[in-house]
Amino acid sequence: MRIVILGPPGAGKGTYASRLTKILGIPHISTGDMVREEIKKQTDLGKKIKEYSDKGVLVPDDIIIKLLEERLKKPDCKEGFILDGFPRTINQAEALEKIAKIDLVINLKVPDDIIITRLSNRLICSKCGAIYNLLTLKPKKEGVCDKCGGKLYRREDDRPEVIRERLNIYRKQTEPLIDYYTKKGLLRNVRCDDLMIPPEVMVEKIIEVIRETVEEVS
To answer: Is the Cα dihedral 67, 70, 73, 74 positive or negative?
Structure first.
């Protein structure tokens, strides 16, 4: 099953995908993580990406597509994958179609007030990238990652005023994809109206949608 997870920043894409990968046995592929990894490894491509990043401009689509294409060729993607953070635009969606057939698009629908509260309380591990939340998913020890013992930090862009701007950008750039994938018959909505709902409950909702899709196809 080849799945795309759509949703505004703070909708839970990474949190849910990291749990779904264990249940479904297919890799969680985050283009954001791939970009950060290339920069960290200081590859030729990583150095080029860093130049864009340092200027505060988006990495061009052709670079992201090249990274993704190489990743999807790996053996662990043979049975499928979960894409998180890509595509963000119609152009990217059309480019993706040339390198992979998508079976299902999960669209996470979350009200703005929940997103702003959730992101304002988000913490991320500086070592392994694990995501925590001071309201719904606290670490066992304050400021320390349960998984690897890394230090937890708050992203600079997780401030309410920045989050609102990110939501505006999402609406302009990414929301057209909802219509795009609806017309293709691939999109299924999964709604979250409760700030305190545990990630496991949302993951179960997504699994149910996946089961229904598999039954429809078969």
So the answer is: negative
Q: Give me the active site residues, please.
A: 13, 88, 122, 155, 166
How many residues are listed for the chain in this entry?
Answer: 218
Cβ of 180: how many Cβ atoms within 10 Å? 17
2 within 8 A of 100, measured Cβ to Cβ: yes
Q: List the structure tokens of 53.
A: 């990043």
Query: Which domains does the chain possess?
Result: 2-217 (3.40.50.300)
Q: What are phi and psi of 113, to 5 degrees?
A: -65, -35
Phi, psi of 87 (to 5 degrees): -80, 160
Output the tens digit of pLDDT for each of the chain's 218 residues.
999 999 998 899 998 999 999 999 999 999 888 888 888 888 888 898 888 877 767 788 898 999 999 999 999 999 999 999 899 899 999 999 999 999 999 999 999 999 999 889 999 999 988 899 998 889 999 999 999 999 999 988 888 888 898 898 888 888 899 999 999 999 999 999 998 888 899 999 999 999 998 888 76
Cβ-based burial of 56 (10 A; exposed 0-12, middle 13-18, buried ≥19) = exposed
Round to whole Å and give the CA distance between 143 and 23.
28
pTM for this model (two decimals)? 0.84
The one-letter amino acid at 178: I
